[in-house]
Specification:
- Helix 2 crosses helix 5.
- This protein is mainly alpha-helical.
- It has a two-stranded antiparallel sheet with strand order 1-2.
Length: about 110
Amino acid sequence: WRDWSSDVCSSDLSGCGHTVYVKNCASCHSDKGQGLVGPNLTDTFQIHGTSRLDVYTTIQNGIPEKGMLAWGPVLPPDELAAVAAFVTTLRGTDVPGGKAAEGRSVDRFQ
C-alpha cells in the first residue's frame, strides 16, 4: 500500500518535474541544467537519442557506464514522467556557463 497523498506530484503537477529535478538531478546536472558531472541539458545536443522518449528512457534506465543512476526503480511513475517532461523544457535555453556540448546536435523541442 502506498500513501499517494504525500507524493510531490499529487499536490502540484505543474511544479512536480522541477521539484523532482532539484531533489534528484541538480547534484549532477546543476541547478539550471547547465551540467556538472552530468552533461549540459540546456544546449541543443543530446548524447543518448534525440526524442522526448529517449530523454524519458535515459532517466528511467540510467547510464551505468557514465555513473547515472536508473531512476525507474526509485521514482514513482508520475514523478519519472514529470521530471522527463521538465528536462525537455531545458533544451535550447543555453544557460550561461554551461558545460561544453556533448553528443549530436538536435533540434530544440517545440
